[in-house]
Structure formats: structure tokens, C-alpha cells
């Protein structure tokens, strides 16, 4: 039989053990709880950081979305007065449907402004859609310029603007579709040049001259085109010429004769010397471009880098040399085969040389150009020597050739040039 005192001692030991064990458990529990709290803090901080970053990103997205919408609304508002009076605004879905979502098969060409597509509207009418890049500052400027200018111009020798579209990120101009496309495709293509007989060439020259006369003297507002060239003359199904691409055009006041600009745009080969070298343009700058175009139509040759490399002088210089030597027949396009009116051809040649004279004051006005072309009674004055672009200040001939964008088959509406590159001899 156990001693009661021994039982009490054992019981006391058990109680003490249980107390110590419970204390140890409580201590371990407290330690585990501390560890859990310490481990959970970084997770909570990470979640908070992610939430803050996502909120900031969402706020930035909302701000940019609202800004883009504000810009679009401003663009639409700026065009709304035109749409109510002159120019219809077409919806994007109908343009997508007409062009088969801008398929490659419908692409007509591409220039500095962007691509051009053929389209067919629901009623069967054919259109040409000029699609401008939403992110191109140049494209946006051209778009606004064309909408403001060409919507107010109506002439049989100017391409007709049917409407525009400003929706989402798209800016588009919708023109009448001209199936024969541009003059340069016929003029400088070895296969198609034979299709341009003399009667057709003379008609094209007169049509371009009449369109330019309208811009300079009869339209409201009066306009300087600044980029007249073969690729910017379109031909309808009857081969009637229509001047296109007014992205570089400028309105001028009747009392203002010349305008200075630090930003020279245009295409080498067609650019008047005072504009290329000094940034001075006027209606006489367009007259110079017309003169170059007339000489190209007569010769079937492009006044560009390739001609300069092959002949060591420009087409204008060759024309002047042959005129002075009374060998104008050698200048005419061989594809004509001599089948042309000598009197009409020589008159066009003569007027073309008058238009490309170096001094703007010596060049005729467009009214005189048209009169000299159609009147047998008016005797044109003797032309002075045209400018000779042969001495280059800062670039080699090969670099200059690359700058003359007229060699490319892709239509380029804008070719920024340096006004210090060329020095006439």
C-alpha cells in the first residue's frame, strides 16, 4: 500500500509537469503566431502595391482614352461645317465594305500621305479612297488642307472630292475614281506611251493649263498647288486630265505676289529654282512646274535623276540646247513616229520653255499660257535661258540622284529638300 505522502508527491509532480507543458505550448503558440504575422506582412504589402499599380494604369488608360476621344470630337466638329454645306462625311463601315476591308487587290498606289484604294459603293459607284495615317503629322496636315481647299474647288480639270471620313483612328478622303490612273503611268511606260498620240497629248497639256488657270485666277480661294507633276495628274475614261493631290497647296491673297517659307516641300525636277534654293514660292512656281510637265509630255522623258545620269544634264537643258540649234524635232517622243502637227508641237515647245525661265518675272501668267497655246494669232516672245542645276554645294551627283524622287514608280507627294543643296551655274 502506497504512502499517502508519496501519492501527493506524484500528483504534485504531475500537476507541475502539466503546468510546465501547458506553458511551453502557450509559448510555442505565441512564437508561431509571431512568425505567421511576420510572414504575412510582405504578402499584404505586395497585394497593396499591385492594387495601386493597377489603379494607376487604369487611370492613365482612362485619361488617354478621353484625350483621344476629345481629339476625335474636335476633328469631327472642325469638319462639321464643311459637311453641312459642301462635303459629306461618310461612315467607316461603308468604306470598309466598299474596299473589301482595304484588300491588297484594291490598292491603287501609295504616297507620302498613305495608300489609295479603289472601292465600290452599294449603289455601284466607284470611288478612290485616300487613307491617311492617324499617327502621321504630315498626313493630318495634308488631310485638313485638302478638305479645306478642294471641297471648295470645282472644275472639270480638277479631281472631284466626294466626301471624307473621320472615325476611330481613321482619316480618309473619298474621290471620284479615275480608271486610267495617273499620267506618268502612260507617259513614262514603254508600252503605254504609244497610246498617247499627238491629239491626246495636246489635249492633256491644254486641260492641265486650264485647271491651273482656274486655281490661280478664277477659283475662290485662289490656290498655289506647289506639287504639280505627272503623277499628280489623273486621267478619266476619256483621257481628260484632272489635277489631284492638294496636300501641299496654299491659299494666296491677290495682293501678295510671293511667300517665303523655311519648310520647302515638293519634288525635285519640277521645283522652281527660287523655291528650291530660297524658299520663295508664288503662282510662277506652279508655272515652272507646268513648263517641266509640258516638256515631259512632248519628249516622253522624265526630268529626273536617271535622265541627269544618262545625259549629264537635265531635260530642261537638253530642250533649250535643241531649241537654240533649231533641232526641236529631235526632242519629240520617238513613239509619236513623226505623226504630229509641227506647228502645234513647236508652239507647245516654245511655251514650255517660256514657263521654265529662271526668273519668275519672265515666266508668263497662266492666262497668257492658255492664250498662247490656243491662239494662232499670238506670237510668243523669245524664251530666256532656263536654270542650270549642275553645280552641287554639299552633295555628290549620286546623292542628288537619290534625292530626286521623281525616279520612283511610287507616287510621292512630299519630298522635303534642303534649300542649300543646289547652286545654279
Q: Major sheet: size, sense and barrel closure?
A: 5 strands, antiparallel
Q: What's the helix-strand series?
A: HHEEEHEEHHEEEEEHEHHHHHEHE
Q: What is the domain tally?
A: 2
CATH topology of the largest domain: Transferase(Phosphotransferase), domain 1
Shape: elongated
Rounded to the nearest angstrom, the distance between the terminal CA atoms is 139 Å
**Low-confidence parts:** 79-85, 390-425
State the helicity in percent bands.
Answer: 40-55%
In CATH, what is the class of the largest domain? Mainly Alpha
Short description:
The protein is α+β, with helices and mostly antiparallel strands and 425 residues long. The protein has helices at 4-85, 92-98, 137-150, 183-187, 198-218, 273-278, 283-299, 305-311, 315-324, 342-355, 366-374, 397-403; strands at 107-111, 114-120, 126-132, 161-167, 170-176, 223-224, 233-235, 241-243, 250-251, 259-260, 280-281, 391-392, 422-423. The strands form five sheets. It has a five-stranded antiparallel sheet, sandwiched between helices.
